[in-house]
Amino acid sequence: MIPSLSGLALHSGALSTLSVSRRADDGAGLRFFWPGFDAPLHASDLAALRRTARRATVLENSAGARMRTPEHLLAAALFFAGAPLDIVCDAVEPPGLDGSARPFFELFSAAASPAPPRAQAYASNLDWEHDGPEGSLRARPHTHFSVRYLWEQSDIQYLFDFNSAIGAPEQVLPARTFIEYRDWIKIPGGADLLAGAGDGSGMLLATTAEDYAEARKNLPDSRGKAFPLLHPEAFRFPDEPARHKVLDLLGDLALNGLALPKLRLEIRNGGHALNHLLLDRLQSEIRRNP
């Protein structure tokens, strides 16, 4: 029986199934089979796809075929880049599941053994800073990939210092996606956003004590035990929101050939838009120094 995962896609709400099968080792590593793409996608193909960010990463080829919300899947795929596995999805967006990357890592582990992510070095000493509406970031050369991530909004702040990608399966991949209460109540019906969200698909947070009190009044079934968590009952980690931001970062950086850059990153309030700016900068370095 081929290992698979099924569930509603987080944003489209479509029923989606993702399966993994092992083939003879031909040296090609992971291959992704996605609706609308005429040929399997290899690691080297991912960087060539057009990227947009709207609460998630969306990839598109020149013919208009899309791969939506792949970041959690790709964060797990970093640890199986060289494995002869075929990843097949029957919908544009993979299942959202619990809002983390852990189920994907476990699915891949059923077919192959994980390995440390590939490292990507750059010919020039990349030292880059960005400060804008997308968030702030400082990238400096380093011996390996590491990131210090600060997420702060109004009355809450979470800091996570991630120093070794090898620890991601235990420290980062289980962290669930989240949305702030004020953003959640503004999403109109039929917006093709969070249509597949349910009780077990992520976290709902309030960023101020006032919002928390309002939400508890308007959402009598909320089960969060303490501010700022409205749902579910408890965090998996005390700093789970910051860890999930690092998870999204890993998944977006995986678009660069299923490898992580040898950089020390310092990020404040970044998300997919900032991750894509960093990817643009890294890919320009590769083009200048092939």
Description:
This protein is of the alpha+beta class. 23% of the residues lie in helices and 28% in strands. The chain contains eight helices and 18 strands. The protein has a five-stranded mixed β-sheet with strand order 1-2-8-3-4. A hairpin with a 7-residue loop joins strand 3 (31-33) and strand 4 (41-42). Helix 2 (71-77) packs across helix 3 (102-109) and helix 7 runs parallel beside helix 8 (272-288).
Structure keywords:
8 helices; five-stranded mixed sheet; alpha+beta; 28% strand; 290 residues
Summarize the structure.
This protein is 23% helix and 28% strand.
Secondary-structure blueprint:
Blueprint: E1 4-8, E2 15-22, E3 31-33, E4 41-42, H1 43-46, E5 50-53, E6 57-60, E7 66-68, H2 71-77, E8 85-89, H3 102-109, E9 118-120, E10 128-132, E11 135-141, E12 146-153, E13 156-162, H4 168-171, E14 178-180, H5 181-184, E15 203-205, H6 209-218, E16 229-231, H7 240-253, E17 259-261, E18 263-268, H8 272-288
